[in-house]
Amino acid sequence: xxxxxxxxxxCGAVVDAAALLPFRCPQAGAAGDDVDHxxxxxxxxxxxxxxxxxxxxxxxxGVGGPAETxxxxxxxxxxxxxxxxxxxxxxxxxxxxIAGRLDRALIAVDGRGxxxxxxxxxxxxxxxxxxxxxxxxxxxxxxxxxSHKARHLMGVLLYLKVLEAARxxxxxxxxxxxxxxxxxxxAALAAAVLARAADWPLDVFIPPDAxxxxxxxxTELGAAITVCRRxxxxxxxxxxxxxxxxxxxxxxxxxxxxxxxxxxxxxxRTLAFEMAEGFREAGAAVETLFVQVGxxxxxxxxxxxxxxxxxxxxxxxxxxxxxxxxxxCAPLARAWQRLGDSDLADAARHRSWFMWPWENTPSSLAxxxxxxxxxxxxxxxxxxxxxxxxxxxxxxxxIARAHRLALAQTAVSVSATGSAGLAGMLSLPPSDxxxxxxxxxxxx
Length: 444
Ligand SMILES: Cc1ncc(COP(=O)(O)O)c(C=O)c1O
Prior knowledge:
Blueprint: E1 5-8, E2 14-16, E3 39-41, H1 49-52, H2 71-74, H3 80-87, H4 92-110, E4 119-121, H5 123-128, E5 135-139, H6 149-166, E6 179-182, H7 186-198, E7 202-206, H8 212-220, E8 224-227, H9 238-248, E9 252-253, H10 262-282, E10 288-292, H11 297-311, E11 320-326, H12 331-339, H13 344-347, H14 351-354, H15 377-387, E12 390-394, H16 396-409, H17 420-426, E13 435-439
Helix pairs in contact: 3-6, 4-6, 4-7, 6-7, 6-10, 10-11, 11-15, 16-17
Bound molecules: pyridoxal-5'-phosphate (PLP).
């Protein structure tokens, strides 16, 4: 088996995962460069039938088998760390062993490991929302650390574990490097749970107004916390700047922003694989998917995952991807408008024309999607264009109504950020076609 390679969608740089850590594009940061650098696995961008021919995803007897309920086992042949392990001669059992140990540690730390999460139509919610068509809700609130975020980071952690197990030069000195993340919410909690399960030291960069309950849990999990204030000489998120400095000093990027670690996006694709399989089992043709967008890793992972599932024939075509932001912070909607029908490849070489930090300090009930920048904007734009989707800017009334309806009409204890995709649906005229949303995080 070939070792997996990663390709930057902006500059075309190729990284062999056996030789270099495929986190940030090696060309990123060059002076005067306005390229949108992001590494994605080479053979999971079309055409990629070869990579997915043996998946439970396509209904054949795969290595995991249809009965496998841990997504990181079920979809392992689609994950580049698994392919790297096999290319380096590790047996299939070595992957099961790595994933199994982490699973047991996660259960000890957080009371749960990764399992396929529930998804079902929610007729009462559809009716209350005025939707004539069926409304599917994928519930991530019971996932590891209470949101979908841990999926992203599990993709990274499994890669680190494979490097350790294979004892290759690419993994030398890895254990001496700390993990680092900039976040004050679900991503930080997910990182801290996974880092604790792997017994790997973690630095978390948080703003001064981070919720005390989150800070307390991060501390309990053993994360080292640095509070970062806005500075006059810096635009954009000060936590993100501090994170970048830590990574420049040798830390391993353990965040969910794709440009810093393409592997994080890959782990998130498992969510789309699960949904696609669920739609197929139910015989449902879901027309539109509304997704709340902050830094953009979630929507980017879904766009890529659904494209792979469609190409594998699991679903006829990817649902229309509708990216939902709030009035208080909508850098992706701004970029999408600027993009119009311009050439995407060209846009990847003129990033700053499309994406720059939101000027005002944003606020919203859905505070988890207030990222200054949509770091993964390009991949989402590509997904929206390919699926005939677009952006929706929801006002605060819609965000609040979506949250109220979600809590009243379903049994899911979802946060306002977690139900913000539904606010996008509420902001558009009702449709009689099937729609899906993701309740992505638990109410804390
Ligand atoms: C519950 C929840 N849903 C959705 C998002 C948005 O994800 P992304 O930042 O990848 O766009 C976040 C981000 O923090 C979140 O916490």
